[in-house]
Amino acid sequence: MPKLIVIDPGHDTDDPGSTQIDGAQERTYTLPLALATRDALLRGWDCEVVLTHEGPGMVPGGDLAAELRARGELPNQLGADFFISLHHNAGPSSARGGELYIWTSKRNANGGLVWLPAIDPATGLPNHEAPRSYAIAQVVQPAIRDALAQFGIPWRGAPDRIMCADFAVLRYPELPCMLVESHFGTNQQDDDVADSPEFIPTLAQAIASSLAQALRLTARPEEWQLPRAKVLLPTRPGDDAPREIFGEIRDGVTYAVLPGMSTEVPVRAVAEAMGRTVRFILEPPTVIIE
Ligand SMILES: [Zn+2]
After folding, report:
1. How many Cβ atoms sit within 10 Å of the Cβ of residue 173?
2. Which CATH fold topology does 3-219 show?
3. Is the dihedral angle over the CA atoms 138, 167, 203, 80 positive or is it negative?
4. pLDDT score, position 226
5. End-to-end Cα distance, the chain
């Protein structure tokens, strides 16, 4: 059985997340990152990937507590092997850098969240309660840190720092899980580089390959991994721009994971069967679904 990874694009249309310094909403960053991470995993390794949502959340009506609980319980219901929630951070304009969180039940005296290093520097003892999450985080954290460093984004605190907090979305998965805050959308330097076209593909590849290593996924045969084709999805009401995903060309057929599906399908055949018109541009290879 291939391992199943659930990816949670932080926030949704009801709860857009924080506002970046350029005015964009956090959700417009987390969904493309989640899609790119899913595609990198499926392209490179034998696994299955499910997203908690692709725009509108799981619980209609905007009940945030119910939404986060539904997302955290989805991997339990699916019998998943790993859960990752993707975000960017927000704070004072000077704050920048990446962070990675695993779960702890600890809260402060008022019941509010506490943010602890996963290992207490004073005692050398763990603050977290999820040793399997911590073991995986120790593989994923340096990969994310190094990917961010390529873009000049620092890691917050010590170079190997992993944090823990009682985040609602990490409270419910009964399996290893983590939450990534890749950078601060409220910092000019972080936000500028995160908008560069190579940022999301690079970060997604780093998350995918380190997860593959930590979860011991089996690599796909090399011929699965190239060449890629861009797939432009039809715009839906509320979309800001055409949605792009990436597919694989094998024997002249483009395969991709279309919205709402958890595995690759031949794009043209499936789109045409759904009554869509499909066009193909050769350079660069692009499938346009209209
Ligand atoms: Zn967030």
Report:
1. 25
2. Aminopeptidase (3.40.630)
3. positive
4. 59
5. 35
What's the pLDDT score for residue 235? Answer: 81
> Which residues have beta carbons under 5 A from ligand 1 (an ion)?
10, 17, 87
Distance 1 CA to ligand 1 centre (A): 32
Q: Position of tokens 């990446």?
A: 98
**95 three-class SS:** coil
Instruction: List, for residues 224-266, the tens digit of each pLDDT value.
Output: 555 778 898 888 777 767 788 888 887 778 999 888 888 889 9
Q: pTM to 2 decimals?
A: 0.81
**Strands 116-117 and 3-9: what pairing?**
unpaired
- Per the CB < 8 A criterion, the answer to whether 89 and 101 are in contact is no
Distance from Cα 26 to the centre of ligand 1, integer Å: 7
What is d(CA 196, CA 236) in angstroms, rounded to the nearest whole number? 25
- Count the residues in the chain: 290
Mean pLDDT computed over 25-48: 91
Distance (Å, whole) CA 131 – CA 254: 40
* pLDDT category of residue 222 using cuts at 50, 70 and 90: low
Range 9-35 average pLDDT: 91
Return d(Cα 268, Cα 280) in angstroms, integer: 9
Q: Which of the pair, 287 or 227, is modelled with greater confidence?
A: 287
Distance 165 CA to ligand 1 centre (A): 14
185 Cα: distance to centroid of ligand 1 (angstroms):
10
Instruction: Report d(CA 144, CA 249) in Å as an integer.
Output: 28
* CATH 3.40.630.40 residue spans of the chain: 3-219
